[in-house]
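Course assignment 3, question 2. Fill in each field.
Student: A.L.
Task: Predict the tertiary structure for the chain below.
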Amino acid sequence: MRKFHTIYKEKQNRSNELFETKVLNDFKNVYSTLLDKYSIADFYNLNEEEQITFLAELNSYWSEEQGVLERGKKFLQIRSDVLSETSTTLQKKNFLKKKTSTVINESLRQSQIKWKLYDVIDEMYNEISASNVAEVLSPNNIIEIIKESFVGSLKEFFKEMRHELLTSATEVENEINEAKKKKTKDPKAKIRNRGDVVFSAGSSKVKDDVDHFPINSISQARNALARSGQYSSSPSWYKGSLSELKNKVKSAVKRKYPSIKQSK
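Answer field:
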C-alpha cells in the first residue's frame, strides 16, 4: 500500500499542473482577444508606446497568480458579443451560446410550454380524482419524465439540425472545389465561341474549357471526322471513351451534312 504523503504529493503536483494550464489558457484567451481589439495579428506590429498600453491593459485583465481577473472576465464577455474576421474560437462559442440561450428562453416563454405541461398534469389529476398532486406522481418523478421527454425530442432535433448543417457544409465545400476546378482549367485556352461545334466548352464532357471539333462548313466537318479518327485513345480533354467521342462526331456531322459519306 502506497504511503499517504506519496499520494498527496502526486495529487498536489497534478493540481498545480492543472492550475498552470488554466492560467496559460486564460492568458491565451485574453491575449488573442486584445489582439482582435487592437486589430493586429501580432503584438510586435505595435509601436513602442502602443506596446506599453497593450501590456498595461493585459495586466489589468490577467495575472500570473490568478489567471483571468474579474475585470478580464467582463472584458472577454463584452468582446465575445462582437465578432469579426479575426474572432477567436472562444469568442465565437460565447457569441453562439449567448444568442442561442436568448432564442431558446424566448421560444419557451412564447410557447407557454410550462403551462401546457401543467395542463397535462391537471388532466391526470382529474382523471384519477386526486386530492393532491403527489397522488398523481411525486414531483421528482414528474420532473424526470418531462426531462426524458425533452431529451428524446432534443435528440431528434439535434439529429435533424446536424444533418442539415453537415449537408450545407458539404454543399459549400463542393461549390468551392468546383470553383477551384474551373480556375485550374487550361489557362492558355482561348478558343471559345467557334460557332457550331460537336463539343462546346461548357459541355460536361469537356475538361479544358475549349470548343472542340467545329463543323460550321463541310470542310470543317470532314476535318472533324479525320481528326477524331486519328486518336488511338481518348484525348486528355475528353471525359469519356474514345468510341463514344467518335460516335458523337459522326452523329453530329451526319445530322448536319447527310451528303458526306462516312466509312463504317
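Instructor remarks: The chain is about 65% helix and 5% strand. The chain has a mean pLDDT of 83.
Grade: pending
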